[in-house]
Amino acid sequence: MRAFGIGLGQVVTLVRETRVIESAPEYVAVAGPGARELALALAEGGDASAVAVDGDPGAAAVAIWIVSGPVAPEERALLRRAVRAGKPILVVRHGEDTVPYALPHNVLDGVGLSIEALGEAVARVAPDAAPVLAARLPLLRPAAERRLIGVTAWGNALLAASSRGGGPQLPLLSIAQSRMLLLLATGRGHRLPSDPKAIAKVAGIPIAASVVVGLGARELVRRLPVDGPAVRAAVAYAGTRALGAARLRLP
User: How far apart are CA 229 and CA 168, in angstroms?
Assistant: First the structure.
């Protein structure tokens, strides 16, 4: 059974994907000089257990290392372990020493680094875990929400631009928007229920909202005096961002 081109299989996949993300590691591992102070700052107003000082980087959602001076052998070993575990690493560096195993754009200047900038970096390197972390660490929430909405909007814009007619893309655009809405809710502490009927209700609301926005956007494109990839991309981008902004106004 399909409604507006969205099949039951797509809905099931959407729910399963959201459940997988919800079950992702929910803490940040922080190590290095000043780790306790940074952990307290990250956890302000939230759950202190979501930031583990000297926690296992292999089990964390993201590892943050504070480096001051040359990297010690034990620090090098821990960085190597995190990389081999496939965990994203952010390095807060005080000084100009080279940090092994860390990508250059993931090395942050510790001088004057704000919690907001660090939150943006966490959302960038761990996009799937960011909504789950944001549910426990409110200081990360604005960055996680901005990135999720922005990435979804740009992805939908590219998808819309690649289509000539807009119709076949509506289910794909709507599923992407529904995923965004569910993850925004996850970042606010909402989790999918276990009861099938409750799941249908929780997942059905964002899907319905996305379809309504998609139908309105498609009708708008048809009524515009000009058409083309840029127009379709702009409408898809604006519609996705508007849907995300509307969700942020809700609790």
Answer: 15
Residue 7: its H or E element = strand 6-7
Alpha-carbon span 165 to 144, nearest angstrom = 33
Q: At what angle do helices 196-223 and 170-187 cross, to 10 degrees?
A: 130
> Model-level pTM?
0.85
**Residue 203 CB coordination number (10 Å):** 19
Helices 141-161 + 115-125 axis angle, to 10: 40
Domains of the chain are 2-22+141-248 (no CATH), 28-127 (3.40.50.300)
The CA-atom distances, in angstroms, between 44 and each of 52, 134, 216 are 14, 12, 41
Do the beta carbons of residue 57 and residue 63 sit within 8 Å? yes
The C-alpha atoms of residue 148 and residue 6 are separated, in whole angstroms, by 22
User: What does the pLDDT look like over 152-174, one tens digit per residue?
Assistant: 999 999 998 887 644 457 888 88
Phi, psi of 30 (to 5 degrees): -120, 135
Positions in the chain short of pLDDT 70: 1-9, 164-168, 196
Do 90 and 64 form a contact (C-beta atoms < 8 A)? yes
Write the single-letter amino acid at 175: I
Torsion sign, CA atoms 57, 61, 66, 70: positive
